[in-house]
């Protein structure tokens, strides 16, 4: 990469660039400070801790970018053979053309000027050995841009995840207010005896299909798309929680929706965190974006499959709670009383589902960030988007998974696990 060095650059130009970057950084830091101050004032401890985690994740991305800057010269001077460099390319056809063209350029006596220009960019050492840089300076610069885009998408998906989750819970407010009415108390008389199958919860979860495991999973799979949390499930799980954790005197004034809302905020701390295993899997995803692997046909579907499996499992857990009611007796007194337990979850670990949700949301944000970066950096006509179905799949899957996971799966998880 040619151009003037700082010793040939006016000091006013350097000062202006530094001033602009410093101003932007101070403004962003001040915005985070104001948000944190507001969260403290509203006693949103969990959200404040989530904000601190987001700041630390951004700091980590900034540190990675700094290491790239410091090590740019060292990395670009590492030489590898053309044969090795010709593997695992996102655009094999361009690479093959470049590999054929470069030796001809450097063997030609009429291209000495071009050779000196390339040498000024740090490639002379590798070219003299008939090799190519491990990662060129231009490639490292493009990685800087990708890190910035990933940071932006990480913040955006965190905001969108919390907003959609709270929007879903806003619909439960009407049901919660209904439990305070006399009509609700009359229709749910605690002294009334009914058959378990005749209750609203029983009619939904105690049918012929509940006797067959395959049918249970199939029906629960589709339930997450249509009324994932119906009124009867919410009220029954609410009743089970209050009977297990609250005394008779405090049940009538307890706001279960607010409790679940605070629970979602606690879970949000895990959702925004990017653990080392997730980072390593992300690196593998970068590796898989290789020409000939048709990654656009399967990588975007990995988060989708996981979130659908998790959503189905949560629906199955509610159905199994209904089956336990009938196992305790055909007749119930008052509302059906669910009997939860950790054994209903995979490996007896309810938090495992939350970690899977965390993985899905970050990988979805990463893939959307990668798509946006390649579209802006290389254009929509580049080899990254040479297939029309590639663009359609990535955008549609990204939007659908974000909505399904944030609006359906995460609130459902918060509801089910609190009853446990």
Tell me briefly what this model is.
The chain is mainly α and 420 residues long.
Features:
17 helices, plant defense, transmembrane helix, MLO-like protein, calmodulin-binding, about 425 residues, elongated, 2 domains, single chain, two-stranded antiparallel sheet, mainly alpha
Description:
The protein contains 17 helices and 4 strands. It is an all-alpha fold and 420 residues long. It folds into 2 domains: 6-133, no CATH class; 137-419, no CATH class. The strands form 2 sheets. Strands 1-2 form a two-stranded antiparallel sheet. Strands 3-4 form a two-stranded antiparallel ribbon. The radius of gyration is 28 Å and the shape is elongated.
